[in-house]
Specification:
Blueprint: H1 3-19, H2 28-46, E1 58-62, H3 72-79, H4 82-91, H5 96-100, H6 112-126, E2 131-136, E3 144-147, E4 153-156, E5 169-180, E6 183-188, E7 191-195, E8 198-210, E9 216-225, H7 232-236, H8 240-253, H9 268-291, H10 299-302, E10 303-308, H11 315-326, H12 331-338, E11 342-345, E12 356-358, H13 359-365, H14 367-387, H15 390-400, E13 403-404, E14 407-409, H16 410-417, E15 420-423, H17 426-436, H18 438-443, E16 448-450, H19 457-463, H20 466-475, H21 497-522, E17 531-536, H22 545-561, E18 570-575, H23 583-600, E19 609-613, H24 619-625, E20 631-634, H25 646-652, E21 656-659, H26 665-672, E22 678-679, H27 684-692, H28 697-703, H29 705-712, H30 728-736, H31 742-761, H32 763-776, H33 782-794
Parallel strand pairs: 1-2, 1-10, 2-9, 10-11, 11-15, 15-16, 17-18, 17-20, 18-19, 20-21, 21-22
Antiparallel strand pairs: 3-4, 5-8, 6-7, 8-9, 12-14, 13-14
The structure holds N-(acetylcarbamoyl)-beta-D-glucopyranosylamine.
């Protein structure tokens, strides 16, 4: 008997004895608790850290978000004990899949950036890449989304770990102290002393990340607290309210994740969170480095600090501060260490997401750091002066300065302070160089790279799609879970009728399962024969859910006008959250829900058209939707979606992409073959032309009857219970501004949708395309991304 089996059986005996019950009497919740506790023991016992790879440094992955999803099923699988647990449960008349549903989804992220961090932790552990993930232990993760009576988004708090969350350890031994405010005393020359006005403690919670047959290593999350209940000195002075407010500040610090995706809000508390995250993490990195008897000069030889976008940018001046003030290194020495240690990943070109902090605010909260940033800015000034001639200088400085117009430009700070900068898909990395940082690219040659994103096949195929996994196991030699390129082996089977039938049957089974979820969640009975057309992602104008919406309205109108005409039945599924303060995105959600209500109750639409909005999109819901998709909507305006990762998950699970030439869609089309995706819309270049010629959305509105009728339906009360003004802002934005060229792409999108319907009618060809998507997209495994990081960025010098 394996040691895990023994552990399982003896622990079950004890667990039941303590509760005076027989195993058969345990509730699902108790089973969940029991299995979670045993698996945590197994995680800690059976997986010593592997020796680190010699060719790469240890990775310290700094991210404000880790959207890890449920852990129990994933851990059981990666430990290789999933089947054993399943068998034990089966003996007691239980199903493991149901038990796993008991776990709360820790929603410690907003979307793509946070989920990518989680995939990377999985891949690093699976590839024995030594790594620690550093993040924040938010008390409330991303809000829970409900849909209100009028179809509108409502938000509720998500206290993800309040009652029971066994996968984490409180590491009381890893406490840190973080200062804020106060003043800086200039001692002499380069020597300064920071006297913070107040201090907050950070305590760590470790979540072990279990790699696939690999190592376990920590995701370390910091939480703020205050040492004393309140400041007695101030209290004794009689200023009771002030005394207590300090305590409130400390506990408030990590209370909630900011719910913005691709948008900076600029709140002081957010900057405090960022600094707190960085200060705790930098101290922890140095502690471990020095504990191994290594010198500060050796830091870049052994450690790399990977910045997940600019949210942890303040780590750069923080490391400088520690080296200068605490270890008394010279500026030159400190900078030489620092600039060889950091690497920065850019995830967006959207101007509203590029973080810039008010310089006065930074100076007030972090007075020592602003002095360091000023010095960095001055040194940079010399470099730019030396590289650019007089005619070029003004423009180059405007582009590269870290400090400009009382703003601290965090992306610039990252580029200056890092030895490597990368974008997240080829087209995006090219735009980072050509549009965002052209002057830097000239100044720092060789600093810019591309690492195309990837997704972990353990969660997104093995766990989410067990039926497809079993089929792949049957036909692929070698462990495809570890080496996704092995899926190429099924390419010759794409035309094999027997394999096609098996593949198709699995898709059908997954669609039935999703149909059940839809019925449970929103009470809609869907047509399992329809094309399942899926758009799941954050709601954002640039992602253009409104384009999908307009096409659905046009389709509805067309069916209404020609009730006799044959239609390829279609189910449109949406899921996603909008930032609570993002009015237009919320209007789009409401419009979809109102449209769904009208369409789903119209007898003329029966068997032809349905719309489902599934509330509270999160990792566990994605795992249910993705395996059931026939069509994957990736319809952002070209140049706006840095990469996308949902596009990869959906395509690997056999959905056909309808998409623009944006982000990783471009590479997906290359790998899958152009004939196995449907591409439409303007390209980066043609968008440029469109704008250069003075884009006027109203012209499209006026000239295209189908488009105009669709938009007008939003203002005639059809989808708003007679309210003609509900969508005024949305409609005005589309007709008069349309910053993401929705109207310009409408006709071509509609044609692409007709192409999808046409192709779906030839099921043999459709399944062949779907199989080829699975077979050819192995490069989008996050294991490949991590290997790219290893060879391009994390290698030892
Ligand atoms: C996202 C990008 O929008 C998405 O295209 C990409 O796939 C993902 O990062 C992972 O790289 N960006 C964000 O979520 N947020 C920010 C601030 O970029």
């Amino acid at each position: 008997m394996s040691s895990f089996q023994t552990l399982l059986e003896t622990s079950l005996k004890t667990y039941c004895e303590e509760r005076f019950v027989q195993p058969e009497q345990l509730t699902d919740r108790q089973w969940y608790q029991f299995i979670a506790e045993v698996s945590q023991q197994a995680v800690l016992q059976s997986f010593p850290h592997n020796p680190p790879l010699v060719s790469t440094r240890k990775v310290n992955y700094l991210s404000m978000e880790f959207l890890i999803g449920r852990l129990l099923g994933n851990n059981l699988m990666n430990l290789g004990v999933y089947d054993q647990v399943q068998q034990l449960l089966a003996k007691c008349g239980k199903n493991l899949v149901d038990i796993l549903e008991q776990e709360r989804d820790p929603s410690l992220g907003n979307g793509g950036l946070g989920r990518l961090a989680a995939c990377y932790l999985d891949s690093m552990a699976s590839l024995s890449q030594a790594a620690v993930g550093y993040g924040l232990h938010y008390q409330y993760g991303l809000f829970k989304q409900l849909i209100g009576y009028h179809g509108e988004q409502l938000e509720r708090g998500d206290a993800w770990n309040r009652d029971f969350y066994p996968q984490q350890y409180h590491r009381a031994d890893l406490q840190q102290k973080v200062g804020f405010g106060g003043q800086v005393v200039h001692l002499q020359d380069d020597k300064y002393q920071w006297q913070p006005e107040w201090e907050i403690f950070g305590e760590a919670f470790d979540l072990p990340v279990v790699g696939y047959k690999g190592v376990q290593q920590p995701l370390r999350l910091w939480q703020g607290y205050s040492e004393t209940d309140f400041d007695f000195a101030v209290f004794n002075d009689g200023d009771y309210l002030h005394a207590e407010s300090r305590v409130i500040d400390a506990s408030k610090l990590t209370k909630v994740l900011y719910p913005n995706d691709n948008h900076q809000e600029g709140k002081a508390l957010r900057l405090m969170q960022q600094y707190f995250h960085c200060a705790c993490s930098i101290a922890d990195i140095l502690r471990q480095h020095l504990a191994q008897g290594r010198s500060l000069e050796q830091l870049p030889e052994f450690e790399v600090i990977q910045l997940n976008d600019t949210h942890p940018a303040i780590a750069i001046p923080e490391l400088m501060r520690v080296l200068l003030d605490q270890y008394e290194l010279s500026w030159e020495k400190a900078w030489s260490i620092c600039s060889k240690t950091f690497a920065y990943t850019n995830h967006t070109l959207l101007p509203e997401a590029l973080e810039q902090w008010d310089q006065t605010l930074v100076a007030k909260l972090l007075p020592r750091h602003i002095i360091i940033i000023e010095r960095i800015n001055n040194e940079l000034h010399h470099l730019v002066k030396a590289e650019f001639n007089e005619d070029e200088f003004a423009q180059a400085w405007y582009e590269t300065a870290v400090l400009m117009d009382n703003r601290v430009r965090m992306a610039n700070l990252c580029v200056v302070g890092s030895f490597a900068v990368n974008g997240v898909a080829q087209i995006h990395s090219d735009l980072v160089v050509s549009d965002l940082f052209p002057a830097y690219a000239r100044l720092f040659k060789g600093r810019f790279h591309n690492v195309t994103n990837g997704v972990t096949p353990r969660r997104w195929i093995r766990q989410a799609n067990p039926a497809l996994s079993a089929l792949l196991d049957q036909h692929v030699k070698g462990d495809w879970t570890k080496d996704l390129e092995l899926l190429r082996q099924i390419e010759p089977l794409a035309k094999d009728p027997q394999f096609q039938r098996a593949y198709q049957a699995i898709k059908q089974q997954n669609k039935q399962a999703l149909a059940q979820v839809i019925e449970q969640e929103i009470g809609l009975k869907v047509n399992g024969e329809a094309i399942f057309d899926i758009q799941i992602k954050r709601f954002h104008e640039y992602k253009r859910q409104q384009l999908n919406l307009l096409n659905i309205i046009a389709t509805y109108q067309e069916i209404k006008a020609n009730p006799e005409q044959a239609v390829v039945p279609r189910l449109f599924v949406f899921a996603g959250k909008a930032a609570p303060g993002y009015f237009l995105a919320k209007q789009i959600i409401q419009a979809i829900n109102n449209l769904a209500a009208t369409i789903n109750s119209d007898p003329d639409m029966q068997g032809k058209l349905q719309v489902a909005f599934l509330p509270d999109y999160r990792v566990s819901l994605a795992e249910k939707i993705i395996p059931a998709a026939d069509v994957s909507e990736q319809i952002s305006l070209a140049g706006k979606e840095a990469s996308g990762t949902g596009n990869m998950k959906l395509a690997l699970n056999g959905a056909i992409t309808i998409g623009t030439l944006d982000g990783a869609n471009v590479e997906i089309a290359e790998f899958a073959g152009e004939e196995n995706v449907v591409i439409f819309g303007h390209t980066v270049e043609s968008v440029r032309e469109l704008r250069a010629n003075g884009y006027n959305p109203r012209e499209y509105y006026e000239q295209d009857d189908v488009l105009r009728n669709a938009i007008d339906a939003l203002t005639d009360g059809s989808f708003a219970n007679g309210d003609q003004h509900r969508y005024d802002a949305l409609v005005d934005n589309l007709i008069n501004h349309d910053p993401f060229c929705t109207l310009a792409d409408f006709a071509s999108y509609r044609a692409a949708q007709q192409e999808i319907a046409k192709r779906y009618q030839n099921q043999t060809a459709w399944v062949e395309s779907a199989i080829l998507n699975t077979a050819r997209l192995g490069a989008f495994s996050s294991d490949r991304s991590i290997r790219d990081y290893q060879t391009r960025i994390w290698k030892k010098a």
